[in-house]
Every structure is written in C-alpha cells, then in structure tokens.
DNA sequence: AGGCCTTTGAAGGGG
DNA sequence: CCCCTTCAAAGGCCT
C-alpha cells in the first residue's frame, strides 16, 4: 500500500505516467484541454480512427457514429480550473471541493450547461440518469433534485445535508438484507459515509456501504429498481438465499475522475458509449494539471484508507472470483472460468502480435521507445 | 442475456 | 523488483 505509507508525492501515484505526460505532451495537451475546443474531439476522433486502423480492431468510438461528438466542446475548462483552485482552499471535505465526487457531488458549478446552452438541458438529465445515480450525487445536499426518495429511505435521509449522521441513522435507512449490507449503491461513494459515521465506527459489522453490492453482479440501479418496485417474491427469494456480499474495490483516482466527468462529457459530445467516453476521459485525465490530478489521487487514497478500515480483511483478490463467490453456482464458476480463459487467450493473441506493446517494451525497453513500433508507442 | 469495449490506477501474485 | 493479470465504473453495441 504505497499510497498509505508515502506522502503527497506518492499520492500522485503512477509517477512515471505523470512524468511522461508532463514531459512529452504537456504543452500540447494543456493547450488542448484548457481550450477544450472542438479540436479536442476532432483530434481524439482522428487518433481513434488511426488507432483502430492500426489495430485492425475498430474501437467502440471508431466503430460507431462519431456524429455529434464535437458539437459542444467549449472553453469551460478554465472555469474548471478556477473552481478547483478555489475549492481546494476550503479543505478537502468542507465544501464540494470535488464537485463530481460521488457523494459530494453538486450540480457542477463549472458544468457546461452554465455557459453552453445546447447542453444545458441535457446535463441535468444525464446526470441523473447516467453516471451519477440520483442518490449518489444529490443525496447529501438536496432533496430538491431527488424528491422521490426510495421507499426504503426515510425522507430525512435526503434532507440532511450530508455531514452529521449517526451510523445508526444510516443503518436505519437501509434495511440490511440478512446476508449482508447491500442496499446502498456502490457509486454512492462510501467514503464520505465514513465521515458521517462518526466515532461510533460500527461499519465493519454492518454499516451499509456502497462498496458492498449484491453478489449478483448487477448493481445499483437494478438493485434500486428492484427495491423500489419491490416484488416480494424476489425479496423473499433473496432472503432465503443469503449470499455473501461482494465488497467492491475502492475507486482509484481515475475512476473517481470518470465518475465526476462522465456526465459532462456525455453532455458535451452527445456520446453515450462508455468506451468512447472513457477514451475522452483518459485524454482529459492526462491533460489535467498535476494539482488537479492530485485531488483525485488524494481522494482515492482516502477511499482506500477507509476501505481498509472498513474491511481490514478484504483483499482485492477476493473479487477475482467475485462472480462466483456470491452466486456460487457451478454455472457461474464455469462462466468465470470461461471468461478468464478468453481473456488469457486474448492476451496471448496480443502477445504474439508483433505490434504488441508489451513485446516492444520488453524488447527495447522503456528508454528506447523510439525503436518501438507505432502502436506500441 | 451477457460479454465486449475503453480508460487509469491499485493490488496481488509469480518469477 | 518487475511484470502480468484482474478489477473497479459505465452503457451502447454485438453475439
């Protein structure tokens, strides 16, 4: 757990990546991202096309309509920067320093809808229906945005403003299934919960936690849907079959960033396919300043810390077989085995491919990337 | 219905 | 220590 033992510098993680992006394309990327003009997407698209051509495997983005992607990219990143710098002054969790951070998420102050009319309407819609689950983004702050509370959530849950909440309250909000704690959505990031849990700190034994999901593999929305229009049979069945809850991995910095920015990107480029969106987000991630990334690394670090506190015995390894641990059927075991096999085969294929990045890296080393083939570079 | 795609980062295991 | 693999989120697409 290097992030825990190390200080701020290491918190930034992936230093090599950071360095490389700083060294290589910082200015270029900065210009791109700070401007966030249509060129950004156009560039991305072209690169995606190139990559897809090179790889002979059409990417999700390349495959499909890159129709309206570059429609509404405008210069709002500066606002982002400004907002961020202001927010950072306030301390980590006093204010929505991380607007998109799952639980602290507010209607994004530097969201394009504030300045860009074409997407203004979309954003709120998207935010609620996509990436940010209603509870995720709005619960702590407002019941206005999420008035119809789920039946199993007392209304005061959404009325409380986020911070002071006794653990008893929380456990009261979510009726815990006998098998464990799975009523809360994982993307309602559990980290801030811990801040609310207070010193009572009973979470290891029963605090509902978004990191815990039903072992069905399907999570949050579906689960909530079911909870809301709960069919007694289903519930009974679930109760009859107490399943080991799956504790999800804590989100890393990039994942946190993705959760925050996804809706924005969707609104801006009218894309919905996650694969394409994630490519954009990946680029934006690299274009972030070190300070901006640091926010997310710090958040991720705290997430991990809390996760460790909540689930000291949990190991990432546990979820390697999560698919079969919960549903615990022979079929699922078989499926999981198949899946792993497929992945392995795929990996082998890519390794046998002369253009495989790993191959070039292994052959020439990181210092001689000039010798790498195009795709590897 | 369920896997794939796509991204970065973390973690664990093997050599 | 380095490398590899898996998982985390997301949702449209594809089989």
Explained architecture:
This protein has a two-stranded antiparallel ribbon with strand order 1-2. The chain has three domains: 2-130 and 252-310, no CATH class; 137-250 and 317-330, no CATH class; 343-371, no CATH class. The protein has helices spanning 2-5, 8-11, 15-23, 26-35, 38-55, 60-63, 77-89, 112-115, 117-129, 134-138, 155-159, 167-173, 190-197, 203-206, 220-228, 232-240, 253-269, 274-287, 290-310, 322-327, 330-352, 357-364; strands at residues 212-213, 246-247. Helices cover 57% and strands 1% of the residues. α4 (26-35) crosses α18 (274-287) and α9 (117-129) crosses α17. It contains 22 helices and two strands. It has 377 residues and is an all-alpha fold. The protein binds a DNA duplex (15 and 15 nucleotides) through α6, α17, α18, α19 and α21. Residues 19-43, 72-84 have a biased composition (Basic and acidic residues).
- What structural class do helix, strand and pairing data support? mainly alpha
Strand order of the largest sheet: 1-2
Helix fraction bin: 55-70%
Q: Which regions contain 5 or more consecutive residues with pLDDT less than 50?
A: 1-42, 44-207, 216-240, 323-332, 350-363
Q: Whole-number average pLDDT?
A: 51
Strand composition percent: under 5%
CA-based gyration radius: 22 Å
- Number of helical segments? 22
Give a quick account of the main beta sheet: strands, pairing sense, barrel closure.
Answer: 2 strands, antiparallel
Oligomer: single chain
Per the principal axes of the C-alpha atoms, what is the gross shape?
globular
Distance between the termini: 29 Å
**Number of structural domains:** 3
Topology order in helix (H) and strand (E) letters = HHHHHHHHHHHHHHEHHEHHHHHH
How many DSSP-defined strands?
2
